[in-house]
Amino acid sequence: MNEIRLLSTSAILGYGFPEASLKAGMARAPHVIGVDGGSVDPGPYYLGAGKPFCSIMAIRRDLRLMLHAAIEAGIPMLIGTCGGSGGAPHLELTAQLVREIAREDGLHFRMALIDAEPPRDGLVAQAAAGRIRPLAGLPALAATTIEKATRIVAMMGPEPFIEALDNGAQVVLAGRASDPAPWVAACTRAGLPPAPAWYAGKMLECGATPSIPKGHDCLMVTVREDHVDCEPMNPIRRCTPLSIANHSLHENSSPIHHIEPGGMLDTSDCRFDALSDRAVRISGMRWNPASQYTVKLEGVELAGHRAICVCGTRDPILIGRIDVFIEEVRGIVRDKSAAFGVTPDRYTLGFRVYGHDGVMGAREPNRTATPHELGFVIEVVGDTPEIAMAVLGIARTNMLHTDFPGRLCREGNMAFPFSPSDIEAGAVYRFSVYHVAELDDPQAFFPIRYEAL
User: Fold this and answer.
1) What is the DSSP track for 234-249?
2) Which residues belong to any copy of the Acyclic terpene utilisation N-terminal domain (predicted)?
3) What is the H or E stretch that residue 296 is in?
4) pLDDT per position as a tens digit, 406-430
5) Tag placement on the chain: N or C end, fewer CB within 10 Å?
């Protein structure tokens, strides 16, 4: 093919998009429709819990519109990182929604499901062979870490998508995937070079985010031999050279070198030319193949159980000594919790003080302003839900009633917006696997199942 037209509906499946934008995009006769299904950005909880971070109602709405558009046009629909995190339960959730919509609306197609949870014994063997290396300053991956993990996913490249399409799948749902991978698969399968394919994927993975004003909306990208054209489908949005260049910097340690499965996208010599006041052409990107194919591994383990309380104060005397006050409360909580058998090694206690370094903590550069009120999020992570709630109760009580020099109020120090004030927030997970695995076969971790609907 001399060109391929790709329509992305939004930044994440479930973020929503205007139906009018979808119709405008479909009027351009795209060859593929798709959307990124998830992200690691919301943190480890969703991977560990097996839950989506978008509502099922919102996901179902987006899926229904996309499925009808794809089936009516006779084009593939591709979704990577299904369900938010791309684990087995996330993939199954998305697949079940597709099955239900197909049954309810009388849609028929061949569907491929690409799993992304590698067998644990295979990971242990690879780690032992020195074929898994750490990222972000983590230690080498130990067998005990693999075994302890609640869930581990691998981030697939485009190859499994290509195989699914080659085997006749019209709807491809994948577990954890590199965000551009589905789009790269469509491009390279059509015979276009990897450099514009990967650049197009970087744009499409976020829907209309490369446009201004930013918003969750539809983006059309046309890929040709040596360039990429980007245009939003909503007339209120525009792609400009600056908005495209700005978006190409995101989510990488380097602004110009983007490491992906199988190689690196180099954008250091890219040109950004306005085709109109709404569309931009990008050229000059390069793809440098890697000598060793690698995929990223993401895994989480249970860290405890969380309970939180939200409160606030506008007492100027308390605000003037808030750091000392919190340390006093910490000491009271430690002693009173130990009295009912919960020692400090069984929980962590945190205070987020909004209005006083609540966002950046010790790295806050602006320490000159004196706030007239402060908001607190008291957080306890305990070994069990009971421990978390018990320690939180002591912390909340003593935030409320602990005396301090110059105190004028004789009742509580804090205002509470909610009753009950103590909120059980559930399981807490932490990232334990953030590593890179070497693969001789890019599809080794990613088996494919097919269904006829």
Assistant:
1) STT-B--HHHHHHHTT
2) 87-208
3) strand 294-313
4) 999 888 999 999 999 999 999 999 9
5) N
Please name every residue paired with 34 in a beta bridge, in sequence order, or none if there are none: 8, 78
> Which residue type does 398 have?
N
pLDDT for position 411: 84
DSSP H or E run through 332: helix 322-339
Determine the length of the chain: 453
C-alpha–C-alpha distance, residues 88 and 445, integer Å: 13
Helices within 106-207 (DSSP H only): 120-128, 143-148, 159-166, 181-189, 194-204
Q: What is the enclosing helix (H) or strand (E) of 229?
A: strand 227-232
Q: Is 119 exposed, middle or buried (0-12, 13-18, 19+ CB in 10 A)?
A: exposed
Helix (H) or strand (E) holding 98: helix 88-105
Instruction: Report the alpha-carbon distance of residue 312 to residue 37 in Å, rounded.
Output: 37
Tally helices (H) and strands (E) across the chain: 13, 19
Contact present, 27 and 73 (Cβ < 8 Å):
no
Query: Is the alpha carbon torsion for 365, 367, 372, 374 positive or negative?
Result: positive
Cis before 420? omega within 30: yes
Radius of gyration from C-alpha coordinates of the chain: 25
**Could you tell me which of 104, 74, 23, 114 has the C-alpha nearest to residue 443?**
114
Whole-model pTM: value is 0.94
Specify the residue for token string 């205007």. 18
Give the integer Cα–Cα distance in Å for 63 and 452. 18
Rounded mean pLDDT of 256-279?
A: 96
